Amino acid sequence: MINKIIQARVDMLRILDGVEQDVKWHPEGNAAAHSEMAGHEAILWCAEFDIPKERAESICIASYLHDIGKSDTTITNEAGRIVSPGHDTRGTEIAKELGYSPAVCMLIRLHMLPCNLTRPTKRAVRKIIKKLSSVGLELIDLFIVVRSDIMSRSFASRDFPTSMYKVFELGQEILNEPEKEPDFVDGKFVMKYGFTEGPDIGKIKRKANELHQRWPIKSKYQCLRVAVAILKYEGELERTS
Question: Which residues contact 46 (CB under 8 A, 6 or more apart)?
Answer without folding.
Answer: 56, 59, 60, 144
